[in-house]
Design a protein that fits this description.
Rossmann fold, 10-stranded mixed sheet, 13 helices, N-(1-d-carboxylethyl)-l-norvaline Dehydrogenase, domain 2, alpha/beta, homodimer
């Protein structure tokens, strides 16, 4: 027991995107003794001088000194490269990944949506890529200052180019050890593709409708018309997953609806991005699932309509 | 020729709802010599004292004196009762119609949507009810003051309880004579139900999406995603009409799209209602067509979704 508690990772981590998500998990890893290297953009000077501050429901902490970088060229190759950018930044990956990746590196993609690992896999090969689904509620409230409001668990799964289950790989287990040591709950999934569809059951209706309807989860779930629409959209996600042989039981949909009805009023991450006039992760969460569904012959007209509406709203939002 | 030009209607008209639409057509009829009685609410005192003022693309005119009423009890029975209320006011018809209707009266329903004549027909009988579809662009800009911007034609059709074509009836021809004499273009339709579906091909996508997306016709038609969505929604209207044996050719849909792309930027009537925080005509334009489509087994998921979104937005809009 003592050995386990005192043990620390001998794996080094690179965090690409030190925001609400990457900053939080990276700080947790460093707090637990791991060697962590943070890539920053606008907060670089501040974090280099003052480190990171985490206000967390699990207890506040500060890291006065962190390895902060403004470019990947200054960073060392790392054992695990954590992609914690928004998916709208993934066009940068061909520049960001190669300098950091060695023969034995693993790329951990902590992003929303579907098919997001493919972009990393094209660069480093699928065998090096693990996907992570984060159930985290946190915001960046100032440079280098992150407010962790709730949750934090990650579901990990190994990526394959044909989206087939890969089982529990050695890389997954090693990364899980490090995160668990850092007090992050980890769920190992043998079927990453299924896990991604499961998460989309919530993300597609509520992220999408929160923007189109300018609404919190509570406002949506207390309106009978929207509650029904959310369920219909969830059933379309179910159909799309079914077209790829992944079964999402009705009871899972009901559980998501019940859970959402009971949550405290919540502004979704896509709504926050919209309100801050940041680009929306439309392709990862809507475009790619829609495209896959259509390739498999599944008709999901409501998701298509949501995708079309969001494309319009995102464009208008950033051209004003 | 001289006789025709000088002839004037011997039919009396009651206008229920003296707004942008009822005020315009009623004023045109009175200008042409017909006896017209106007029911007003908030503008009653003003119109009783100052009459009506019409600024029209076809030439401005004033009617310094009109028969103005604050309640139907003071009005005489009329030959033609024009229902020019918003459909959201139709719950008033059981009080408004009976005092005005005689054995020989006709009720002319100048409203948007589908099934709107049924509410009048339940009170006076279908044989007395004619539906009119107005292609009119006008606004009320002050009490008793209407700005007629463009168009103005009306398509008339006789109503039947089973929505079957009724041909061109005597009542339609008589009303057409009066309106034509008043310089209003009239198109007689033997199939009112078909005409209503035809108009919905435009009204459903553009009225609905203009509110959900906070957009003008131009903004919608210059965005490829929304243009495609509008076309897909039009095809759902086409399918719903088809389920009732009404064929709307693809060329008609294309004509509507081309026409809309070429129009000057236009804020739809539903968007104007929304911006003014007035109740939206959701049931007439979305709810009833959806209900009929579903009864006939037609799946129109995009229209259902638009209906659900509008119900939410309308409720939020009027509870703030």
């Amino acid at each position: 027991m003592v050995l386990l508690n005192n043990s620390q990772s001998d794996r080094s981590y690179a965090i690409l995107g030190t925001g609400a998500l990457g900053g939080f998990y990276g700080a947790r890893l460093q707090q637990a003794g791991a060697e962590v290297h943070f890539l920053l953009r606008s907060d670089y000077q501040h974090v280099r001088q003052h480190g990171l501050t985490i206000d967390s429901v699990q207890g506040n902490f500060k890291l006065p000194q962190v390895h902060a970088y403004a470019s990947v060229e200054q960073m060392p190759p790392c054992d695990v490269i954590v992609v914690a950018l928004k998916t709208t930044q993934n066009y940068l990956l061909p520049q960001l990944l190669p300098p950091l990746v060695s023969e034995t590196s693993t790329v951990l993609v902590l992003q929303n949506g579907l098919g997001v690992e493919a972009e990393a896999a094209q660069i480093v090969g699928a065998e090096k890529v693990i996907g992570g689904l984060c159930f985290l509620c946190s915001n960046k409230i100032a440079p280098g200052h992150i407010h962790h409001l709730d949750y934090g668990a990650i579901a990990l799964g190994h990526y394959s180019d044909d989206n087939q289950p890969c089982g529990i790989t050695r890389q997954m287990s090693e990364i899980a050890d490090d995160f668990r040591r850092a007090n992050v709950s980890i769920d190992l999934k043998d079927d990453l593709f299924l896990a991604r569809w499961q998460k989309l059951v919530w993300n597609i209706p509520f992220n999408g409708l929160s923007v189109v309807l300018n609404a919190t989860t509570e406002e949506m779930m207390t309106n009978p018309a929207v509650q029904k629409l959310a369920e219909q959209i969830m059933r379309e996600v179910q159909m799309a997953a079914e077209a790829y042989g992944r079964s999402l039981p009705d009871s899972y949909i009901q559980k998501m609806l019940d859970h959402t009805a009971k949550m405290k009023p919540y502004r979704t991450s896509m709504k926050i991005d919209y309100d801050e006039r940041r680009p929306l992760e439309i392709e990862a969460i809507f475009g790619k699932p829609l495209n896959l569904a259509q390739q498999a012959g599944a008709q999901i007209p409501r998701i298509e309509m949501l995708y079309q509406q969001l494309q319009f709203l995102d464009k208008q939002n950033r051209s004003v």
